[in-house]
Amino acid sequence: MIHTIKVLCMNITILGVTRKLILLWLSKGPVHVHLNSFSIGKLNKSLLDIKQYITSDFVRKTRPIDEINRWKATELRLFLIYIGPIVLKNVVKYEVYINFMSFNVAMMILLSPDHSHIVQFVDKLLHYFVESFEKLYVTEHVSFNVHGLLHLIVDYRKFGPLDNSSAFVFENFTKELKTKVRKHDEQVINRYSELQNNVNSEQHNLEQQFPKLEHAHQNGPVETNLTGTQYKCLKLEKFKVNVDNEKDCYILSKSGEVVKCMNIINTTHHGIIILGKVFN
């Protein structure tokens, strides 16, 4: 018996609704939500200006909104979750911005762990988004994907954060698999087995590699009571800290403080320590 049909988060939220919103602003939607040439130029400038501050964790960086038809899912996700709230402010109309932000906040929560206690709030946000979407963009643009957002709450309750069952990893793997296959189905099976063995081996090696320290130096700053080797770069499994690179030198502490990393020290007695400046 089938108990659950999983909503494809990437297809609905990213390739579906996020792309649709941008297309509606550019030309597909009602006239009152369209961006004029000046606003598009302003948005493009912001997207290109912010590019230099996007951390190395993001393989694909921002590009002009005019190229939306060539944006990949990872670029759309970057826009929805991280970049959109910044570059859209004072560019789109206020009610359009508020509608987008309700979608943004809901997705931020649904992609985060341990937020079950505010699921009802997210449910209200998504209902608000769909209802205000219909008013802004008229009923004919309320597609299956837009309505499908209302079912994401069920998935969060059953499977946890939406990334737990995301298709992004399969999208990346499909591209890699296609490059290694030429003709027959048998090749697909063989290539998959080979890749799987390599992945398992690489994963084991990666677990042994991290944390990884690079670019030793002696330039400080150093606390007088610390002894050890100084490094400029600390690589972890999912991100890196580089004190020489403005876009990679900021971290968020567990207590919620923004810290600019100034030096990384592999100390003799206390392990790896990051020296930084706290922004209050």
TrEMBL record:
The name this protein goes by in its record: Uncharacterized protein
